[in-house]
Every structure is written in structure tokens, then in C-alpha cells.
Design a protein that fits this description.
The complex is a heterodimer of chains A (about 400) and B (about 230). Chain A has about 400 residues and is of the alpha+beta class. Chain A has two domains: about 200 residues, no CATH class; about 170 residues, no CATH class. Chain A is built from eleven helices and 13 strands. In chain A, strands 1, 3, 4, 5, 6, 7, 8, 10 and 11 form a nine-stranded mixed beta sheet that branches. Chain A has a two-stranded antiparallel ribbon with strand order 2-9. In chain A, helix 2 packs antiparallel against helix 10 and helix 9 packs antiparallel against helix 10. With about 230 residues, chain B is of the alpha/beta class. Chain B has a domain of about 160 residues: P-loop containing nucleotide triphosphate hydrolases (Rossmann fold, 3-Layer(aba) Sandwich). In chain B, the strands form two sheets. A six-stranded mixed beta sheet of chain B has the order 6-7-8-3-9-10, with helices on both faces. A four-stranded antiparallel beta sheet of chain B has the order 2-1-4-5, covered by helices on one side. In chain B, strand 1 and strand 2 form a beta hairpin. In chain B, helix 3 crosses helix 4, helix 3 runs parallel beside helix 5 and helix 4 packs across helix 5. Chain B starts with a strand and ends with a strand. The mean pLDDT of chain B is about 90. Classes of the chains: A alpha+beta (about 400), B alpha/beta (about 230). Chains A and B meet through helix 1, helix 8 and helix 11 of A and helix 2 and helix 3 of B.
Chain lengths: ~400, ~230
């Protein structure tokens, strides 16, 4: 208790030197939480959007389906297994049939993925209801696709594909709706049509390439030879992107934290040098070396505690403001490969704040303790003369 | 000698390494100090006064011989036991006052009591009494930087006396003070010695101090060359 009291008095008494260290440390403290919160928000925002628009609660894939190899699309279709058809009939899953196609908007040609989906589905957030009507082939596209193909609602364009027998065929499709989404994977290079029409066009009645399961649907243990891909698997790329970005950010805040810790280390070393007489006096008054080490270590640790308090004063309102208003992203953020949208909303969990606080306090305490080990060898007579033994 | 012996120094030698050889600061020192003494260890610079004071104060240990303070052999004490001895029985006054700059007068005087673990109410009473002895009751909020040299040394005396130690060791306490302040300090210490029966041992070569002593131990090249009772003013 005495050491605590003395350490507190010393650190407050040191005035500007203390506050400079505290402010620098509090910057790194707030910045670490802020960036970590951004990445957490990025992860959750992207995952949520992808689940809503593309992944649902997981997907069953035709055994031949490989999203990274468009050449497999020709073979990756088949009758939907009975276990999945039951779920589809109950509205707890939605089948998607995928094939390659070429479109000819304004006389140009563009390779796309032609996707058939049930217009009545409610598993994914795509506005597929607009595919219900019309004699013509209704087509649903996203804003990115519309922009790249220069298409608008009501526009007609030719779609050419190869059916199950390998015969090329073509039809004019009409853009019935254009949707806006942060998930580029359901938009860029994709055109959506009713699945029944696509099955007809391809000569693949009752077939599909993938079946998306609803998020609360109980996943069947088996569905023929179709393979279940859970969300961990489907979101692994996002997790990898976040991890990579986090490493970059970690280097930045490790540097920042190192600078703050170096300032504290420097202060401690300087303190030991400047306050040798004080240490000698305290020893003459009856203080043990152990108590001196505790005082100096606590003085350093108080920097961390004060930094947390100072950081809280300006950091809490700042972080709350960011959490509410988000971080506006530039237009090219769409090219980051993640479903982020125009604004990124950071998420600051209790563990993020507690964990970062503990990490900083621990680092500061260790850095403060290291130089004080010299006190263990300090002779009172040397200290009183202003010497370090 | 006054009353019972509380410090006994027997055949003490103290050497320090110096270059490739060593320097002997104390040689064959034999002394006894009783309760309530007002004694000076006198000698020129380098005669070993401070070294002897450090050994008596358990801040250092003899190279040879033994020093027994309050019944404890300094040579046998661990670092913690030595700190405990200083904490309970010894007060120190230094030439440069050695006050802690970030503490005010009250807090500086409070330090030894905090280390003793005295409850706050008793502590407050003792601090105010000690500051009263040295005439600084009106300066309790001042920081050392706001005080004169004489006032700083009076704070140092209050800090040494606040726990009513058995022994006060004062190393050149007047060296940085003018004559007026020196006499004020010495009269204060003399009064405390008479009032509380505290043993005062000075290391000094200041004639002003010597005039107040009741016993003078003269050191020369680390050896006791004279030990005499004095007639005080």
C-alpha cells in the first residue's frame, strides 16, 4: 500500500514528463482498439452480407462443382437429391442452376455466369420476385453488371448458351430489375433468370448445381453424393483477407506501441539515473530494495493506467461516434474483394477493449520493470553518493 | 560516556577497491556510544567520518571487525534486517538535505512513518509535532524548492526525528548553511537531544558544530586519534 501511494505521488509529481508519456501511450491504446474494431466490423459486415445474399446457412454442392474452375460448370449439374428437394418444397432451401453463357449487349459480347433461381425463394436477399412474370425471358442483374454491360431496366440483350447436348442456342432476355448489393459475387458477371426457364433452355429438368440452405434450417446429414459446405468453409476467404489485413495493421500499431513503450522505458532508465540519491535516501529511511523495485515498476505501470483513463476520456466518445456513424469508404473500396458497402461500421466488443487494456498494462509493466532490476544490486552508500552500483 | 551503550564498534576496518589495489578508509576503530549522547566524529576530508557513520547506520558493513547497533551485529544482517533496523531505530540527516522534490514538507516528514506502517491519525499528530519542533508548522504545503537551505535542513531534521528514533546520524548537517542557520539547526538538535534523549552522532569538520558537542571523536587517516568529552557553550 505504501509503495502504491508513493508511486502514485511520484508519477503525479513528475508532471509534464508523465503526461507526455501518458498521452502518447493513450494514442496507441485508442488506435489499437479503433483499428481492431474496424477489422471486426469489416469481418462481420462482409460475412453478414454474404450470408444474406449468397451463402444462406450453408450450401450443398454438386460433387463436380468448383467455383474456381468455370470449365467444370458444364458437368456440375444433376438431379436434386430427395433430401434437399423436401427442404426446397418447404421453402427452407433454394436450388441454383449455373452455366456459362455469352451475352451480347449493344453488339458487344461478354462472358457471364447464367444462374437460374426460384423466383419465389426467400432464402437469399436477391429481389427474385421480379423474375415471376413475362413471356420473355426475365433477367435480374446487379448494379455492377448493369454498369459493365451498359444495361438498364427494360433493355433487351441476346444470351447465348450451350445446352445439355452441347448445342448452342440463343434467346433475348429482358432486364426486369437491377439490384444493389455489397456482395460482388452475386452481381459482377452474373445474370439471374427463373430456374424453370433455365432448366428448359439447358434441357436439364429438375437439375441444379448448388442448393442454398436457409440459415435456421436443420442440415440433412446426407444428400445423395452432394457435398455440404458450411459457413466456415464458405467464409474462409474473407477470414483470410481479414487475417492478412490484420497483420499489416498489427505491424503499424506494434510500431506505435513500441514507440510509446520506448518512451516509458527511456523515462524509467532516466529516472533510475536521475533519482539515485532519492533511492539512497529511501533506503536510509528504511526502505528495502524490493520496495524500491516495486515503486519504480508501479510508477511505470501507472503510465498504463493513466493512459487507459486518458484514452477513455477522448477515446470512448470518438469510438462511439464511429460505431454509430461508421467510416465512409471510397468508391474503389468495392474492389477490395469484400462486401463492405459505402460505410464501414466498426464493432468494439467488451473483450476487444478488455484484452487491449490488459495487453497494454502488461507490456507497460514489463517495460517498467526491466530497468529496475539494477536496483537489486544497488548499495545504499553508492546511491547516496549518486552512483549506480 | 552517557548511560548504556547502544553502539559498539570493535576493531573495525573498512577497505574499498581502488584501481588495482585498495584504499583503507577505517583502521582498527574501537568506539562505544551511549544513549542520549551528542557526539561528533571530527576530522579532515577523507579521514573516514562518513564511512564510520555509514557502518553505524547499517548502510555499509565493515571489512573486518564488528559494529553492534541496538544489540544487532551489522555484519550479520540481511538487506531486509538492515532496512528494518534503520526503519525502527535510526534517523539520518544529510549535508544536501536529500528531501524528495515532488513531495511537500508534510509528505517528506511523513515518509518514515509510512514505512513504519503507523496509522494515519497517529501519523498526522507526529508529523505536526515534528514540524512544530523545527518551527515549520506554517510551511507544511511547501515543496523543497520553495524553501531556503536552512528550512530544508529543518525539514530533514523533522523527517529524522518524527519517528523518535534512538539514534540520529548527521553527516555534515551544516556544511551548506550559513552561520545563523547552522546555529539555529544545532540548537534545535540539541534541544531534541535533551528533550527526547535521542543519541546524535555527527560527522563534521565544522567548528560551529564542534562547539555544541559534548563528546568529540577525532579521526585521522581512518584511525581514532582522540576521544574527548567537551565543555559545551
Amino acid at each position: 500500500m505504501v509503495t502504491l501511494k508513493l508511486a502514485y505521488k511520484n508519477i503525479i509529481g513528475a508532471g509534464l514528463r508523465t503526461w507526455l508519456n501518458v498521452v502518447v501511450l493513450s494514442f496507441s491504446f485508442v488506435l489499437i482498439i479503433w483499428t481492431q474494431g474496424l477489422y471486426k466490423g469489416m469481418n462481420q459486415q462482409a460475412s453478414r452480407a454474404m450470408k444474406e445474399m449468397e451463402l444462406g446457412g450453408g450450401q450443398f454442392w454438386h460433387p463436380e462443382y468448383d467455383p474456381y474452375d468455370p470449365l467444370t460448370l458444364e458437368d456440375s449439374h444433376g438431379p436434386i437429391p430427395e433430401e434437399l428437394q423436401v427442404l426446397i418444397d418447404k421453402g427452407e432451401a433454394v436450388p441454383i442452376l449455373i452455366t456459362s453463357a455469352t451475352i451480347y449487349p449493344d453488339g458487344r459480347f461478354q462472358t457471364v455466369q447464367l444462374k437460374g433461381i426460384l423466383p419465389e425463394q426467400s432464402i437469399l436477399g436477391l429481389p427474385t420476385g421480379s423474375l415471376r412474370n413475362g413471356q420473355e425471358l426475365p433477367v435480374l442483374i446487379g448494379t455492377r453488371m448493369a454498369k459493365s454491360a451498359n444495361l438498364d431496366i427494360g433493355d433487351y440483350f441476346t444470351i447465348r448458351w450451350r445446352d445439355a447436348r452441347g448445342v448452342f442456342d440463343a434467346i433475348d432476355g429482358k432486364v426486369v430489375n437491377i439490384f444493389r448489393t455489397t456482395v460482388g459475387a452475386v452481381d459482377r458477371g452474373q445474370i439471374w433468370v427463373p430456374i424453370d426457364r433455365l432448366r428448359e433452355m439447358l434441357g436439364m429438368p429438375g437439375e441444379g448445381t448448388i442448393v442454398v440452405i436457409g440459415k435456421d434450417t436443420v442440415v440433412p446429414e446426407k444428400a445423395g453424393d452432394w457435398v455440404f459446405r458450411n459457413l466456415d468453409y464458405l467464409l474462409r476467404e474473407i477470414a483470410e483477407v481479414i487475417r492478412t489485413k490484420k497483420v499489416g495493421a498489427s505491424i503499424m500499431y506494434a510500431l506505435l506501441l513500441s514507440m510509446a513503450l520506448l518512451a516509458i522505458f527511456d523515462t524509467q532508465v532516466l529516472s533510475l539515473f536521475r533519482r539515485r540519491k532519492e533511492m539512497g535516501t529511501l533506503m536510509a529511511l528504511g526502505m528495502t530494495r524490493g520496495m524500491l523495485i516495486r515503486i519504480f515498476t508501479l510508477e511505470g505501470a501507472f503510465h498504463g493506467i493513466l493512459a487507459v483513463l486518458v484514452g477513455a476520456v477522448y477515446g470512448v466518445p470518438l469510438l462511439i461516434w464511429f460505431e454509430k456513424n461508421g467510416w465512409p469508404l471510397p468508391d474503389y473500396a468495392d474492389d477490395f474483394g469484400m462486401a463492405l458497402g459505402n460505410t464501414l461500421y466498426p464493432i468494439y466488443g467488451a473483450w476487444l477493449v478488455i484484452g487491449t487494456t490488459l495487453l497494454i498494462l502488461l507490456a507497460v509493466t514489463i517495460v517498467s520493470f526491466l530497468p529496475t532490476r539494477r536496483i537489486a544490486k544497488l548499495k545504499p552508500t553508492d546511491a547516496l553518493r549518486g552512483k549506480i552500483s | 560516556m552517557d548511560k548504556a551503550a547502544i553502539i559498539t564498534v570493535e576493531n573495525v576496518y573498512k577497505s574499498f577497491p581502488m584501481g588495482t589495489g585498495e584504499f583503507t578508509a577505517l583502521k582498527e576503530v574501537n568506539l562505544t556510544f551511549g544513549e542520549g549522547e551528542f557526539t561528533g566524529i571530527v576530522g579532515p576530508s577523507g579521514s573516514g567520518k562518513t564511512t564510520l557513520l555509514n557502518i553505524i547506520g547499517s548502510l555499509d558493513v565493515p571489512t573486518k571487525g564488528k559494529a553492534i547497533v541496538m544489540g544487532r551485529n551489522i555484519n550479520d544482517l540481511t538487506q531486509k534486517e538492515a532496512a528494518d533496523l534503520r526503519n525502527r531505530y535510526l534517523g539520518f540527516i544529510f549535508q544536501t538535505y536529500n528531501l524528495l522534490p515532488v513531495y511537500n514538507v508534510y509528505e517528506n516528514v511523513e515518509l518514515p512513518l509510512l514505512l513504519l506502517g503507523m496509522p494515519s491519525k497517529e501519523r498526522d499528530t507526529a508529523i505536526r509535532q515534528a514540524l512544530d519542533w523545527v518551527g515549520l508548522s506554517d510551511k507544511i504545503e511547501s515543496r523543497p524548492a520553495q524553501l531556503s537551505g536552512g528550512e530544508c535542513q529543518r525539514v530533514a531534521i523533522a523527517r529524522a526525528m518524527v519517528k523518535k528514533p534512538k539514534i540520529v546520524l548527521a553527516d555534515e548537517p551544516t556544511a551548506n548553511l550559513d552561520a545563523k542557520n547552522s546555529h539555529h539547526i544545532l540548537r534545535t538538535m540539541e534541544a531534541l537531544n535533551r528533550e527526547l534523549g535521542t543519541t546524535f552522532i555527527f560527522a563534521t569538520h565544522d567548528e560551529k558544530v564542534i562547539r555544541y558537542l559534548r563528546r568529540k571523536v577525532s579521526l585521522e587517516d581512518g584511525k581514532v586519534v582522540a576521544d574527548q568529552s567537551m565543555k559545551t557553550q
